Amino acid sequence: MEKIFYLKGKFLKESQSFISPEDLGFLRGYGIFEFFEIINRKPFYLKDHLKRFLNSAKILKIDHSLSLEDLEKIVFKTLKKNKNFKDGFVRMILTGGDSKDSLSAEKPNLYLLLEEKRKLPQIFYQKGVKVITKIFNRVLPKAKNLCYAESILNLKEAKKKEAFEVIICDKNGEILEGTTSNFFAVIKNKVFTPPSEKIVEGVTRKIVFGICKSLKIEIKERKIFKKQIENFDEAFLTSTTKKILPVTKIDRLRIGRKTGNVTKKIMEEFEKIRKNF
What we know:
By secondary structure, the chain is an alpha+beta fold. The protein has helices at about 25-30, 45-60, 70-80, 120-125, 150-160, 205-215, 260-275, and strands at about 5, 10-15, 30-40, 40-45, 90-95, 110-115, 130-135, 165-170, 175-180, 180-185, 190-195, 220, 225, 235-240, 245-250, 255.
């Protein structure tokens, strides 16, 4: 059965859905988005995603009248109209709106798109993935905005090098985050992740903090530098699609040859949370 999307206040079949060529999200990349999982027709950690969505809109100064409760209602109405959509993802987008001069608009546009469930190969979780590092600066890094040109170019380079993800570093060699993920390092059974000031704070990242607390694993935010990679015992990425994904190679440096024990414990606990959700 064809999926039903929410576009600018209307529910439309996927085949009838379109974005105006005058939309500032299309013309200028001026907009924000959120991406969350649906498990057995229930949005996973919805409130956390919506709070971040509203914060991103605030950072980009997109004027709107939407409350968290308004967004919740739209999400559940969209799911109600898609009775066969049991598991998958929702992509929520808010753009600056339609513009006649390609720079300004009076009313923002809200879109909700449904995406099919997709899984990474199981071998990735067993043996880990390779990532590469790149120096570049995100545009408004605290917001989930639509400016992904440089990230896409870097991911193309990663693919040529048979790497799965790109880890963003600043000019001082400080590790920040992945293009679509948060980064964690394990050193002597302690978990470290870059400070929240310069990154998008992932919802899965937040869950990992709770897991570590429950498992009595020490976890801290602190600056991590490329020169410290050789000291990593383990490393992993987190995101809505990747979940808890082990990293066993960064550039040319090997970090073990399989999923480490600390990472494995966190992965197992995260799967319990998802199954019991």
